[in-house]
Amino acid sequence: MFAANGITAESELERLKNSFSNKIDSVLAPLLNRHKNSLENLEKNLANVSEVENALLVREERLRISKTRGSKLIGKVPSSPLKLRDQCQRFNREALSAIRVWEKKYEQTLGSLESRLNKLSRLNDALLVKNESIRFKREVALRDKDHRSGDGSLEEGSKDYALASNGAKAIAQNSPQSLIDGDLEYSGSEGFAWGFCPADFIVSFPETTSVKEINFLLHNEDKSREYLYQLFVLREDDGEWEMIADHAKRPSKGWQRHKFSPVDLKYIKVVGIFNSANKNFHIVEIEAH
Description:
Jelly Rolls, 4 helices
């Protein structure tokens, strides 16, 4: 099955598939490296506090991703330990967000190649490309179905605008970059932003951005402390802060998730009011989807 120029449809298709695969690997590489480092640190921390079984679960995930490439890195999220679950959820979200545009381009390129082959009356060749397009679309659809959240959180693959890598900036009394670095690993002394109560934690976007969910992780290493806070948004530079959540009298811990109708905004602010453990307020990460 050769074309007039001696190039088979298989070779054209294989080149296209290899090019797409290499692009996905390069896009995921920085996310994967950070994920590996976070998992390695988490495994060490768990082992140091004698949580051997949980440390082994983290090692199992590390081994899985070390033997995997491409979109197959986006695996099933472990149910425990909680820090492992959070790390894997974050990686899946960022990875899916990063590769979406390239998956769309691959589909479009397949469609263009199929159309060109049909116009050249290379019908058998066009059928090969069409079959690859069908296979790829089914694979993506099944993956996306598998990675929809079952715990009420946002679907995996939703872009997190509150990341430094997406142009976000942060303000806090101490360690503001921790709010937007995408790293959910933390200890009793590092990995979080903090300030003396009442403390402001602010994330800004490079431009007005449509957001429908704001999440943030409160320091919860000892599992016992509770926080009081208020959550505000600012639509534009010269606007006024609007409160969208008031937990000033509602003790809270761990992940805080706030969903609402899409709104265009420029800033997010968490006002930390109280911490039952000490006089400081601690936030590990802020997300905006």
